[in-house]
Specification:
By secondary structure, the protein is α/β, with parallel strands linked by helices. It has two domains: 2-169, Rossmann fold; 187-341, Glycogen Phosphorylase B (Rossmann fold, 3-Layer(aba) Sandwich). Helix content is 37%, strand content 17%. The protein has 14 helices and 13 strands. It has helices spanning 26-32, 34-42, 57-60, 74-79, 84-98, 112-120, 157-169, 187-195, 221-233, 245-255, 270-278, 289-297, 310-313, 332-341; strands spanning 2-3, 17-21, 47-53, 66-72, 104-107, 125-128, 147-149, 205-209, 237-239, 262-263, 282-286, 301-305, 321-325. The strands form two sheets. A seven-stranded parallel beta sheet has the order 1-7-6-5-2-3-4, with helices on both faces. Strands 10-9-8-11-12-13 form a six-stranded parallel beta sheet, sandwiched between helices. The longest helix has 15 residues, at 84-98. The chain is globular and about 60 Å long.
Length: 345
C-alpha cells in the first residue's frame, strides 16, 4: 500500500465499475454527490454504485448517474449484535457486496468502519491519506487502502471529495472553490415523490429548516417567529418540515403563531423533502443536512451557523446561497437583510 502516485488505467473494452463509499451523515452524503457528475463527465459509460446508510439511501437513488444504491445498516446492526438474525443480515450484505467486481472502490469517509467495509468489496480501494481541518479521519484506515491520496488540510468538503475522486480515477481535479458544480439531484424525481403526499402547499412558501438534534446548532425560537412575522406580512407562507417527534412539536409550536399562513407537513421521505425544498421561494435553516440539500439545489438559501465552519461546509457555488454566523448565532437582522436581497422582504 502506498500514497497515490500513478494514475489508474481504465480497463480496455468495457466501462469502468466504481463503488463510492460514503455512508453518512446526510450533509456529508449531499456534499459527495458532485463526484458522480464529475466522473461521468470524464467517463460517460462508467457504472457507479454507492454504499450508504439505509436511512439516506432514498436520496442517493435520485442522484443522476448512480446505477445502484447499496444499503449499509451498521447503525441498526450495532443495536442488535447479540441477535443471530443480525449476523445473518451482515453475512448476506457481505455476500452481495463481493458479487460485483469493481475496478475502483473509493472510500470518501476515512473512518475505520468505512475503510474496513470498503475492503470487503472486490476491487482496489483508494482513500484519504490525511485528515483535513474539521473533518473526520482515523489514521488506521491506511491499512485498508491500496492507494492513499493526500489533500490540503484546509479544503472545503465538496472539493475534498472531488479531488479524491479525480486522483483515484486519473482525471484532472476541478479548480478549488469552482462554482461549476452539479450535485445531480433529480428534481423531477423529487417533485414526483412530493406529489405522492398530495399536499396542498400554500404558495409562495418559505421553508424553515429549524430541525437539528444538536442544541448548539439551534437558532432561537423567538427569531423564527419574528422572521415568520416579517415574511407573512409580505405575502409568504411558511412550511416547517420535521424528522422526529421533538422536531414536529417545535414545528407545530412555531406554526401556531401564524394560523393558516403556516403548514406542518407529515414526515416526508428524503426525495419528497428535496421536492419541497426545490419548490420553495427560499429556505432558511441551521447547519444540517436539509439546508445542504437546499444549497445543492441552488434555491435561495440562508444557512445559519453557530460555529466558524461555513468555510468548510457552506455553499459557495451560487449567489443564491448565503452563509451567516460564526462564533455566535447569526442575528435576526442579518437574515432579514439576506431575504431582502432575495426579493422576499
Amino acid at each position: 500500500m502506498s500514497d497515490f502516485s500513478a494514475s489508474p488505467v481504465q480497463p480496455a473494452g468495457r466501462p469502468r465499475k466504481i463503488l463510492i463509499v460514503k455512508v453518512s451523515s446526510l450533509g456529508d452524503v449531499v456534499h459527495t454527490t458532485p463526484v458522480v457528475a464529475d466522473i461521468l463527465a470524464h467517463e460517460p459509460d462508467a457504472q457507479i454504485d454507492w454504499l450508504v446508510e439505509d436511512g439516506f439511501i432514498d436520496l442517493v437513488r435520485i442522484v443522476r448517474g448512480v446505477r445502484r444504491a447499496i444499503p449499509y445498516s451498521l447503525r441498526r446492526w450495532r443495536k442488535t449484535l447479540t441477535r443471530a438474525e443480525t449476523w445473518a443480515d451482515i453475512r448476506r450484505f457481505r455476500r452481495d457486496l463481493v458479487e460485483e467486481q469493481y475496478d475502483t472502490v473509493i472510500d470518501f469517509q476515512g473512518l475505520i468502519k468505512t475503510a474496513w467495509t470498503a475492503s470487503w468489496a472486490h476491487g482496489p480501494v483508494t482513500g484519504l491519506a490525511n485528515r483535513t481541518d474539521g473533518a473526520g479521519f482515523e489514521w488506521p484506515v491506511r491499512f485498508f487502502y491500496d492507494r492513499r491520496v493526500p489533500i490540503e488540510p484546509r479544503t472545503h468538503v465538496v472539493d475534498r471529495s472531488r479531488q479524491l475522486a479525480a486522483a483515484a480515477l486519473g482525471y484532472p481535479a476541478p479548480a478549488p472553490l469552482s462554482a461549476d458544480i452539479d450535485f445531480g439531484l433529480d428534481q423531477s424525481a423529487a417533485a414526483a415523490a412530493l406529489a405522492g403526499y398530495d399536499l396542498n402547499l400554500p404558495l409562495p412558501y418559505v421553508v424553515f429548516a429549524h430541525a437539528t438534534s444538536r442544541a448548539d446548532k439551534q437558532w432561537p425560537e423567538a427569531h423564527w417567529i419574528k422572521l415568520g412575522q416579517s415574511l407573512v406580512r409580505h405575502g409568504a407562507s411558511l412550511v416547517l418540515p420535521w424528522g422526529s417527534d421533538s422536531e414536529r412539536e417545535t414545528s407545530e409550536r412555531i406554526a401556531r403563531e401564524f394560523g393558516a399562513a403556516a403548514f406542518v407537513p407529515p414526515r416526508l421521505s428524503l426525495p419528497a423533502v428535496t421536492g419541497l425544498l426545490g419548490g420553495a421561494a427560499a429556505v432558511v435553516g441551521v447547519d444540517t443536512g436539509v439546508i445542504h440539500i437546499a444549497a445543492a439545489l441552488k434555491v435561495p438559501t440562508v444557512e445559519l451557523y453557530n460555529f466558524e465552519t461555513s468555510w468548510r461546509t457552506g455553499g459557495f457555488w451560487s449567489p443564491h446561497v448565503v452563509n451567516l454566523g460564526g462564533r455566535v448565532s447569526p442575528p435576526l437582522d442579518q437574515v432579514l437583510q439576506a431575504l431582502v436581497l432575495f426579493g422576499l422582504l
